[in-house]
Amino acid sequence: MSKPVFGHVGAARPGDLFASRQELAFRGQHRPLRSGVCGTAALGTESIVLADAYEDDEIHETYFWYAGRGGRHPQTGQQVANQHLDARNLPLARSAETGRPVRVFRRIAPSPADRQFRYEGLWQVVHCERVVGRSGFLVWRFRFEPWRV
DNA sequence: TCCATGCGCGGCC
DNA sequence: GGCCGCGCAGTGG
């Protein structure tokens, strides 16, 4: 892949649906097949996926908290260790500094056993903090608000 | 239940 | 800069 894209990719707009992570990757919307964050420590985050996978996420209408990576049990997904502001969480922290728009996709379930990914449009990271999470471990979380030009 | 696959990063030349 | 190897991962067949 060549240069990163901050903002809409192609004609995709909020509300657009994608069938799978593979399709998101193929369309260049969110390239990693499994990782929830696409970005670099230097430039910040291009896109993220909300998938109800992290217990310390907090979703609201006009803002949401996106939990950092790491410290999870591979099977259960529960936090079993502290998170650190290491290379894998730096892209999100960097976005808080740059204010660049982040593409947000959310995993939804139209019907049981079915799953899709909906484009939630452009958001920006306005704040990051380290808190004690549900399971009692230190986790990082990043506050997203709608992107304003 | 198993395991592929893409990516960022660091080491090396 | 370019190449390579490593470890990780908000999947999914």
Euclidean distance between termini CA atoms:
27 Å
Summarize the biggest pleated sheet: 8 strands, mixed
Low-confidence stretches: none
What is the N-to-C order of secondary-structure elements (H for helix, E for strand)?
A: EHEEEEHEEE
What distinguishing features does this structure have?
eight-stranded mixed β-sheet, DNA-binding, globular, mainly beta, 149 residues, PUA domain-like, 8 strands, 2 helices
Description of the molecule:
With 149 residues, the chain is mainly beta. The protein has one domain: PUA domain-like, CATH 2.30.280.10. Helix content is 10%, strand content 35%. It contains two helices and eight strands. Strands 1, 2, 3, 4, 5, 6, 7 and 8 form an eight-stranded mixed sheet that branches. Strand 4 and strand 5 form a beta hairpin. The longest helix has 9 residues. The chain is globular, with a radius of gyration of 15 Å. It starts with 16 loop residues before the first strand and ends with a strand. The mean pLDDT is 95.
Summarize the structure.
This protein is mainly beta and 149 residues long. The chain has helices at residues 21-26, 90-98; strands spanning 17-18, 37-40, 44-50, 58-59, 64-67, 102-108, 116-132, 138-146.
Topology:
Blueprint: E1 17-18, H1 21-26, E2 37-40, E3 44-50, E4 58-59, E5 64-67, H2 90-98, E6 102-108, E7 116-132, E8 138-146
This protein binds a DNA duplex (13 and 13 nucleotides) through helix 1, strand 2 and strand 3.
